Amino acid sequence: MTTGASIIAALGVGNGINFAQLADDLAEASFGFKRENLEARNETLQARISAASQLRSTLSGLASALGDRIRFGDLAPRASIGNPAVARVSSAAGSAPEGTYSLEVLRLASSQTFVSRSYAGADALAGEGTLRIRFGTVEGASFSEDLGQSPLEIAVSASDTLADVARAISDASGGRLEAYVAQGTGGAQLVIKGSEGAASGFVLEPTSAATPPSATPGDLSYLAWSPASDSGELRSTARDALFELDTVEMSSPTNRVRGLPEGLELDLTATNIGAPTQIAFTGDGSAITSVMSDLVAALNDVVAILNSEGGASGPLANDPGLRELRRDLGDLTSREVMSAANPGDPTTLADLGLSITREGTFRLDNARLAATLETTPEAAAAMFTTGVRGVFATIDRLARENTSIGDPGSLGGSVIRYEAQIARNEERLERIAEQQANLRARLTRDLSAAQSAISTSQSTLDFIRRQFETSDD
Q1: What is this structure's pTM?
Q2: Structure confidence by residue, pLDDT tens digits, 415-469
Q3: Which residues contact 431 (CB under 8 A, 6 or more apart)?
Q4: Which of its termini does the chain have fewer beta carbons within 10 Å around, N or C?
Q5: Which are the contacts of 424, defined by CB distance < 8 A and separation ≥ 6?
Q6: In what order do the strands lie in the sheet with 277-282?
Q7: What is the C-alpha separation between 283 and 98, in angstroms, rounded?
C-alpha cells in the first residue's frame, strides 16, 4: 500500500462510516450497563413484591374464611327450643349466642281487620269524594293517631266502584294496607287488613261530594268508620306482640322479633302463657374437628409458600417480614387465645390439637382434640367466636400484624420498601435516559462536524495521493 493510501485508510475516508449510528453505539456503551443493571434490580424487586403480596393475600384469606365459617357455617351455634310450636329460633349474622334462655309468649302481634257494611256487589258505585285514612292505635272506643305515618288521601270519582276503591287503597298504601271485596251471604263487603303492630290501626274518614251526604250505599260517607262509631265493622284489633325473655317482659310490633340480646332472633308462632319453654344454643364437636383439620391444611399452605419464596434462592430470602412471620407461626400453638378462661378450660390452640413438627409444618393431634371436646365441650365451642378472644381473633391478629403496611418489619412493610426502591430506580432510569440522549446528541453533532471537515479536505487528499503516485512512477 502506498503512503498516501495508508493515510486515507487511517482517516477512514471512503469506508462508508455511519456517524449517526456511531454516536448511538458510543452513547449506548457509556450508559447501557447502568440501565441494564437497574432494570435487573427492578425485576428482582417485582418478584419480591409478588411473593410478599401472595403471602399477605393467603394470610388475609385464611382469616376471612375462618371468620365466615364461624359466622355462617357449621360452626355457628345451633339453636333448639323445647316447644317448637311457640317460635322459630335463629341468630343474627355475625353473632354467636351462648347458653340457654326461657321464653313465654303472652300475646302474638296482630293486625287490624275492617269489614264494611254491605253493598249490592263489587261493581256497585262507591260515591264521589275523597277517602282519608289515618293510622294509629285503636284502644276501645278511642283512636290515637301516629303522626309519624302519613295519612292516605284517595280521590274517588263518580264512576268508581267498590272494587276500584279496594284497588286504590292497596296501591296507595305502600304495603301498609291490603284491600279487596268479599262477596258474602249478605252482599259485597270491602275488607281492609293492616300491618301487625299496635300503631298500625286505622280509621276511615270519607268526605262525600254529595249535598247533603246520605250515608247510604252509593254515597262515599257510607264507608266512614272509627272505633267510637263501630257497630261490628272492626273484626280484629292491631296489637303488639308481648313476651317474656328470661322473665323480662318485652314487646314487638311484629311477630318477627329482632334486636334481642346476643343476636337472638325469634319468629313467634303461638302463645304459651304459664308454660315457659327453653331455648338453647350449642356447638358441634364434629364441626370443630373439621375446622381444625382445615385450619392445619391452610397453615401448611402458608408454610409451603414460606419455604418456596424464602429459601436460599427464593425472592424473599433474608426478608425481615418473612422472618417475622416464620417466628409468629412457630409460636402459634402455644399462644394463649382465651385469656379469661376458667381453670381447666382450654386456652391455647395446642389444646385444640394444633401442633408443629420439627420441619416447621403443622399437624392435628386428634387425640388431644378429642380429649378437649370430651371434657370441656362448651369451653371448646366458646373458642370459636368472632369476638376479641378465641381462634378467629388469634388468626386474624396474625394476619393483620404480618400484612400491615405501617410496620416496616412486616410483609406489608417489605412491600412498601420494595415499591419505594423501584420508584427510586425508575427515577435513575429516567436520568440515565436523559443523559444518554444528551451524549448521543453531542456525539452526533461533533462527528457530523468531523465528517464535514473530512469531506471538505477530500480534494486535497486526492491531490496528495496523485502526487505520491506520480513520484512513485
Answers
A1: 0.55
A2: 999 999 999 999 998 998 888 888 888 888 877 777 677 677 776 766 677 766 6
A3: none
A4: C
A5: none
A6: 78-81, 277-282, 99-107, 241-245, 248-252
A7: 9
